[in-house]
Structures are given as structure tokens and as C-alpha cells.
Amino acid sequence: MVISPAVLVAGPPASGKTVLGAALAGRLRAALLDLDVLTNPLTAVVGDLVGTHDVDDPRLVAATRRARYDTVYAAAVDNLAAGIPVVLVAPFTTERRDPGAWRAAADRLTAAGGRPSLVWLRADRALLADRMSSRAADRDRPKLADLTAFLDRIDLAPPAVDHLAVDAAAAPGAQLRTVLDQLDASRDPRE
Question: Edge-to-edge strands of the sheet including 86-89?
């Protein structure tokens, strides 16, 4: 079985997960599996049913979280089984907080031929507030309405599991080099 990278890019909203994930996917020739891209159309349908369009609304998260992540992991498993590296982009809040949840995700990816690595984009409140305000994305409108309250709910603590730490304030090229260097250093020489 071919062992392929399976890189999970995690971080708080506006930390740069999508930018770093796309750069990594390009460099690794990997499938880019972004939680929002793969699942937001169906999440919007559920949002209509529960009466919210805020993807961070606790009602919508409770109704969709498991199915959204199962979709991303299933796509990753299919790609890995075909020998294609994957880069998964999502907050991975449960997986980074709970070692059992991380182990279950890592085991699923490993069984399909992946070498899982969790990348954590380290960011502070000021950086997130600046990025959310400047990008003015539709998905940020509910957060920007009361940015202080939103930021108070964000967990900025590093993962409780092994991870590759990356400074979210660094330039994208520097972030990419950091991750690639750490992935190379952690690679099994038999691969």
C-alpha cells in the first residue's frame, strides 16, 4: 500500500486555513478537501430548516457537525485509497481537543493509506478581528455584529494532541515552508 500524506489544517475562523490548505495541496499534489466547500450547500438547506444562516450557530452545528465531518473524512479515505495525498481544511475542534477523537480520525486515515498530520494555525484575537473585519465575508456578518462576544467563544488554545504549530501571522510562503519542513522531518525514512 502506498503511504500518502494526509494533512489536516486546523485553526480558528480567519486564521488562514483555506490559504495554507490550498498552498499545501498544490505543493503535495493532493486533493484539497475543504469542509465548507464540500458541505456548505447542504448545510444551508439544514440552516433554512432550523432558521439560521450562521454556520457557527449552535443549533446548526448540533444538527450538522457529524455529517459534515463524515463527508470530509469519507472523501479523504477514497482519495487515499486511490494513492492520492489529501489536505483537509476545517476547524477540527473536537479532534484537536479530544485525544480519542483525534486517534479515531487518524486511524481512519491511516487505514486508507494516509500518514496523518495535524497542522495548527496559531492566532490571537487581534489578528482574527483584523482579518474578519478586512475580508468582510458574508459568513462573517453574524460574527462581526458582536465581534467581542464571538471572539470570547473561540478556543485559541493549542491542540491537546501532537501537531505542527504554524504562526497564522506569518506570510503564506513562510507558513508553507514551515509545514513542508516539519512534514519532511516527521516522515518515515522507509516511505
Answer: 31-34, 86-89, 4-10, 114-122, 164-167
pTM of the predicted protein model: 0.91
8 A C-beta contact, residue 36 and residue 64: no
Q: What share of the chain is helix, strand, coil (3-state, %, to 5)?
A: 60, 15, 25
Query: Which residues are bridge partners to 8 per DSSP?
Result: 88, 118
C-alpha Rg value of the chain to the nearest Å: 16
Grid coordinates of 40: 456548505
Return the closest-CA partner of residue 97 out of 8, 160, 164: 160
Instruction: Please list the residues that pair with 18 across neighbouring strands.
Output: none
Enumerate the β-bridge partners of residue 33.
88
Helices (H), 29-57: 35-50
The residue type of 95 is E
State CA 22 to chain mean position distance.
11
What are the angstrom distances between the C-alpha of 108 and each of 101, 124, 147?
Answer: 11, 31, 36
User: Tens digits of per-residue pLDDT, 174-188?
Assistant: 999 999 999 888 776
* pLDDT for residue 60: 83
Give residue for cell 472523501: 75
Closest CA to 98 of 44, 26, 160: 160
Q: What is the rounded distance in angstroms from the CA atom of residue 68 to the CA atom of residue 39?
A: 6
